[in-house]
Amino acid sequence: MQISDSLAREIAPLEAQLERAAQAGRDQEVMALLAQILAIAPTHVPALAALGHRTFRQGDMQSARDAFRRLVAVRSDDQQEWINLALACRSLDDEPGEQDALKRALSLDPRNLLGLILRADLYERQGKTHDAAAVHRAVATVAPPMDQLHPDLRPAVQRALAFGEKYNREFAVFLEQFLEQQYKDHAGENLKRFRDSVDIMLGHKKRYDSQPVTYFFPNLAPIEFFERRDFPWLDGIEAGTDAIRDEFLQVLATEEGFTPYISYPDDVPQNQFAELNNSPRWSAFHLYKMGRLVEENAARCPTTMRLLDGAPQPEQQGRTPAAMFSLLKPMTRIPPHTGVTNVRLVTHVPLIVPERCGFRVGNDTRQWVPGKAWVFDDTIEHEAWNDSDKLRVVLIFDIWHPHLTPPERAMISGLSAAMNAYSGALDSAESR
After folding, report:
1. Is the domain defined by 228-431 classed in CATH 2.20.70.100?
2. How many helices (H) and strands (E) does the chain have?
3. Does domain 5-170 have CATH number 1.25.40.10?
4. Separation between Cα atoms, residue 247 and residue 285, nearest integer Å
5. Which of 190, 297, 300, 358 has the most C-beta neighbours closer than 10 Å?
6. How far is the C-alpha of 238 from the C-alpha of 256, rounded, in Å?
7. Distances (CA, A) of 282 to 60, 65, 276, 279, 394
8. Per-residue pLDDT of the chain (432 residues; tens, 9 = 90+)
9. d(CA 91, CA 379)
10. Where, residue-wise, is CATH 1.25.40.10 in the chain?
11. Are 251 and 287 contacting, i.e. CB atoms less than 8 angstroms apart?
12. 219: left (phi over 0), alpha (psi -120 to 50) or beta
């Protein structure tokens, strides 16, 4: 609210005196001048703000609350002054006033971190545990990384995180007890997906979705590991594991044909693969690469190639099929990453697996077992590690996603051809 010109002229000398008194640290004179200004102009915003802040610092919460109430009555869109009013009310155990002030502040900006911290604290003092937990979650959501927070706010945000963890632990115990009979009723059934859903809801596990780097096909369920029984053609490949391993060992003895699994030029971003770029620690012996048969390598592995013929390998010019022996040297970790498209899945046939090796897709972590194949969606974040002192080897190849229809597969193959035709990808590849 603007004061009139005549009032502004009348209080101008008082404002000048006020500034000099404040600079000189004459607190009593400052308070007297503020009282004079507000007696003349009760809605003078700078004077009300100064009065509120001074009395708050002095511990006179009654006067501070009165000043902030008068101030927000004049300037109702000032979020910080509503928070100041809430703090004054809190010091006076005025919970209704505090609650109303916080509501008004958060109505102006629901993501205000300090406002959310104060509301969570209020709900805790009121014994509203569930409401407090919800607001603490909001605090954790809107807060920036801890190293970017003002030091004064870090304890409150840490407390919000701790409160949320404690609440989820207690909720988890309650759920387990509440659902105990239902679990017994379905004993022996595969309830992994349901249990994962509860863990994600409680924040014990992260939600992972399909995040293909290049091409996303909608309405294909993001499944971490597919059921082995859905791929009966894998029986023959698993049965041939020993023969496949023997062919690989013969190839390994020659030490020829192996290339780094990751090979980015120096002038492109390498992101999480910088450490493994062009490194022999993670290498491959390609049988199919970028949709092309590597004839020299394939000729050295006739049994493996015959067995691969039984797999529904995708056809995408310049992209798939792909098949290789993947070698991970001792004490090497492949960082979390996602694949290029969800129209194809990836198959692992473990050949040589020492102890302390593992593989994670989303929330599911497994150990390779020689001769036991699995199929997974590599557009869900995954990683691998070999913490042993020996070499780990897996046969890797891709297959069509089984939920695609034959016409959809044909159109995807056509799409790849169209993309290549537009960009000249195959022509440029052949010219190199």
Report:
1. no
2. 17, 11
3. yes
4. 12
5. 297
6. 26
7. 68, 66, 7, 6, 12
8. 566 777 778 888 888 888 898 888 888 998 998 888 888 888 889 999 999 999 999 999 999 999 999 999 999 999 999 999 999 999 999 999 999 999 999 999 999 999 999 999 999 999 999 999 999 999 999 999 999 999 999 999 999 999 988 998 898 889 889 989 888 989 999 888 898 888 888 888 888 899 999 999 999 989 999 999 999 999 999 999 999 999 999 999 998 999 999 888 877 676 788 888 889 999 999 999 999 999 999 999 999 999 999 999 999 988 899 999 999 999 999 999 999 999 999 999 999 999 999 999 999 999 999 999 999 999 999 999 999 999 999 999 999 999 999 999 999 999 988 888 877 754 443 332
9. 53
10. 5-170
11. no
12. left
Token reading at 154: 């870090």
Beta bridge partners of 392: 328
Six token digits for residue 11: 């209080």
- The pTM is what? 0.71
Q: For residue 153, what are its two tokens?
A: 């706010």
CA angle centred on 347, ends 344 and 351, rounded to 5°: 160
- How many other C-beta atoms can be found within 10 angstroms of the C-beta atom of residue 280? 13
User: Do residues 392 and 386 touch, judged by C-beta distance below 8 A?
Assistant: yes
SS3 427: helix
- Own/partner long-range contacts of 417-421 (Cβ < 8 Å, ≥24 apart): 417/317, 420/317, 420/318
63 CB-contact burial (10 Å; exposed 0-12 / middle 13-18 / buried 19+): middle
d(CA 320, CA 303): 21
* Calpha distance 181→176 (Å, rounded): 9
CATH 2.60.120.330 residue ranges of the chain are 228-431
> CA quadruple 155, 156, 158, 159: dihedral positive or negative?
positive
Find the length of the chain.
Answer: 432
